[in-house]
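Question (not urgent): is this output format expected?
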Amino acid sequence: MEIVQAIIIYLACGFPFGVNSFLEAGPNDTNRLFRASAVTLFWFAFLPGLLHTFVTSRLIRPGSEASDRTALVESRIRSASRTIEDLAAESGSPHGTYQIRDLVERFCGLSALTQESLSDNPAISFRLSEIGDHPDSSLAGAVIARNNRLAIKRHHKRAFKELLNLYTELASGSGRDREIRDAFESLIEISGNYDLALPDLEQQEELDTLPKINLMDWRRRWSSFIDSRSQKKRSPKITVGASK
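Got this back:
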């Protein structure tokens, strides 16, 4: 092997470490290019520390409380989704497994964004306004954050409406209303939407059986009554004089 090939292989091994050092340095660090070049040339000396930093910064510790809580929530969401998928398949619903799974994941994801949205972080909005070279970065950042919150809420409302349509379709006319309602309520509770609730289909059916009130018919009757009263008031009174 020639010396040139050995140098190329040596630099190729150190190049990823140099790039990682350069990207991790802040934009205001004037020495990041020099430091990255040094790491590239003497990568074997920085190898243990760089590997430790690289691994620990990208892996979630399995014993941490946050990871355990996230795994529990994801497990409950998957369980509720499988229950809804099975109920939809048994009832002959036209909604497929992947369609229901996409709806569940979209609803839960938007629910999380609604509660702890990144759009509420002013630093992101202000940074975007600075990139756009807006004269008033505070005002532009507030407008961007507000628009992001409204967009997330709008998509979340649409996803919840689709979820309600699926619930109404599965629960109507089936003999497993209680099981279907428990699955959807569990999904809403897991996603943290405590202000949302499923409609009472039994009460809705009772309301549907009540006689419908025709408002247009009552309006026509009331108009006819008012017209007849007006005509009586306008009609002249005929008086018969007494004969002498």
